[in-house]
Design goal:
mainly alpha, three-stranded antiparallel sheet, Serine Threonine Protein Phosphatase 5, Tetratricopeptide repeat, about 35% helix, single chain, globular, 14 helices
């Protein structure tokens, strides 16, 4: 835990601190930030060398009903076994009860597609198109998503089929989909531009036989050894002397486990994800590790921490990728250049927007009113504002440690 704290502190460059709104913000020098990287490396390396934790043999084994407090687990949210305690466990919010007449409430289906529970819900927690697409392109077979139908099981990163509910996945909880057969979720060419099919969904927390009264509700993994290995790799890359070869070695431990999957009752190792070469530069490794954290830790409550701690440079990259893939998904397949870039469009023809909420595209640099933000300086201000949420007025009113005139950058008084 201390290593993660030091990583956060090491990332706090001047752009995190306000010139006018902030009061008594800590301003770290470059030497101080470097010392935090060194401390992050020291603490993570101590855990690594203690051999107290290890990766479980298969990534998929982290996400079954019986996975509690494994050798990989550093910290888990523990659940009891009684029905009343199980009411609000994580997979409860995914799949809900399997009885014929589930209650008409959407709160149980936050991770699931819209009609999975035979009732209407909203599938609130979905996967960014950019995350899935970039994961597939990096560790799938072929250069673009167009090949996903024929190649979804042939030497791709096994984590893909464990992590995402996508394309022609049926909804296994009740064995049906909105169309009565296989579902049409992105990146299907026939996906619908509404809550049900416009994104992939998180599959890690899906359990076919879950009901509110059964007693095998898994814990929620908050921090695991793979997370620490990637943090150690990141810190080694930034550590005094920045040893890229050492950093790459820690990442490759995660990738070596990721290649394993179970076939015909045996554990086998595929070809993807391939080990990284030791020749990556510090910059290349820095951003590659951040991407790898998205693929390995998707849906494990790390996204908010990771997206905002690397400053406006990384935030711009995330927003641009998100924008790229939202736009690609709404383009027709007639534009062949889109395919050459790894794109995926809908069936040719006009794209209906009747089920699309205005402004929900999250297009690059639109303010809350939908107006485009122009100019590099104004865009950078917008990105900088995204690095922190504002202090709520109610919190400032009751928390005397926060002056009433204090506020994070860009959020006014």
């Amino acid at each position: 835990m201390l290593a993660k704290v030091y990583v956060q502190m090491a990332c706090l460059t001047d752009e995190y601190f306000t010139e006018d709104e902030g009061i008594n913000d800590p301003q770290y020098t470059d030497d101080e930030r470097q010392s935090f990287w060194d401390l992050a490396y020291k603490n993570a390396k101590e855990v690594y060398e203690s051999h107290k934790y290890s990766l479980v043999p298969l990534f998929a084994d982290l996400w079954n009903q019986n996975s509690r407090n494994t050798d990989e687990s550093i910290f888990e949210l523990q659940y009891g076994n009684s029905g009343s305690v199980l009411q609000w466990c994580t997979n409860r919010t995914l799949s809900g009860p399997t009885s014929p007449n589930p209650p008409a409430t959407a709160n149980w289906y936050n991770y699931a597609p819209q009609t999975v529970g035979q009732i209407n819900n909203w599938g609130r927690l979905v996967v960014s198109k950019a995350t899935f697409a970039e994961h597939w392109i990096k560790y799938g077979t072929g250069e673009h998503l167009k090949q996903i139908v024929s190649n979804r099981t042939a030497d791709i990163d096994p984590r893909i089929n464990v992590t995402y509910l996508y394309l022609n996945d049926a909804y296994p909880e009740i064995g049906k989909s909105p169309s009565g057969g296989n579902s049409a979720i992105w990146p299907s060419t026939t996906f619908t531009m509404n809550h049900n099919g416009a994104w992939c969904f998180i599959k890690k927390y899906w359990y076919d036989d879950y009901t509110k009264s059964n007693t095998n509700c898994p814990n929620v993994i908050i921090y695991r050894y793979a997370d620490l290995l990637l943090l150690l790799a990141e810190a080694a890359n930034e550590h005094t002397g920045n040893n890229q070869g050492e950093a790459t070695g820690y990442v490759n431990e995660v990738l070596e486990r990721a290649r394993r999957y179970r076939a015909n009752g045996m554990t086998v190792s595929g070809t993807q994800p391939e080990d990284w070469p030791s020749t990556l530069s510090q910059d290349e490794l820095r951003w590659a590790i951040m991407d790898e954290r998205k693929y390995e830790l998707l849906g494990e409550e790390q996204e908010l921490f990771d997206a905002r701690r690397r400053g406006t440079e990384y935030m711009r990259r995330l927003v641009e990728l998100n924008d790229k893939w939202v736009r690609i998904s709404r383009m027709g397949t007639g534009d062949k250049s889109i395919y050459s870039e790894g794109g995926w469009g809908r069936t040719p023809g006009a794209i209906s927007t009747s089920n699309w909420v205005a402004g929900s595209e999250l297009f690059y640099f639109n303010d809350v009113n939908g107006a485009e933000i122009k100019g590099t300086d104004e865009q950078n201000k917008f990105l900088r504002q995204l690095l922190f949420f504002p202090f709520p007025l109610t919190e400032r009113n009751i928390n005397t440690a926060i002056p009433l005139n204090d506020q994070n950058y860009g959020w006014g008084k």
